[in-house]
Amino acid sequence: MPRPPILPPIDWKALFGRGKTFAAWLAAAENDRHREEMATTARDLPVAARFLRFAEGIERPVHVVCFAEDWCGDVVRHVPVLERLCAAQPQLQTRYLSREDAPDTFARYLTNGGEAVPKFIFLSESFTECANWGPMPKRCRELIARGKSRGEVGHARKKVAALYEVDSSREEVLRELLFCLDIAASTAL
Length: 189
Hints:
By secondary structure, the chain is an alpha+beta fold.
């Protein structure tokens, strides 16, 4: 039998309610160039029909708490991908918070000890945490971790940038985000 948790429970519904919609978060962005790039990408990113059909087929509401800050390149790259999927299915709802808005919650989602954003927490219709994603695709996170291990983070970041260049359609991110959305919207085991 599992032991009781030692951390206080998170009131995900309340936290979600405190967040900003994508439009409000984007309007408050401090970096004009990043704001415009995210707005354009969220609107115009070409997404393969199979990914959009998958998102459209989600049958239950999914709430996503998004820790994101517009200064970050990974936020600029990945937030619009999530928003493109949400545009295809109104049952997918996002709310945006900065790390400072909920530091105790964000601290539970560090990436190898670092405060990396974006971090997306996928919640079921009953606001139960089901999955989390970020700050970049799994393969890229592994490269950064290996770079840290060897004291070669700069070299690892260059490799990540090369992977981003090759995957300009962001299919790897789409697959991983849809996997998380599918779990949060599960109708059966």
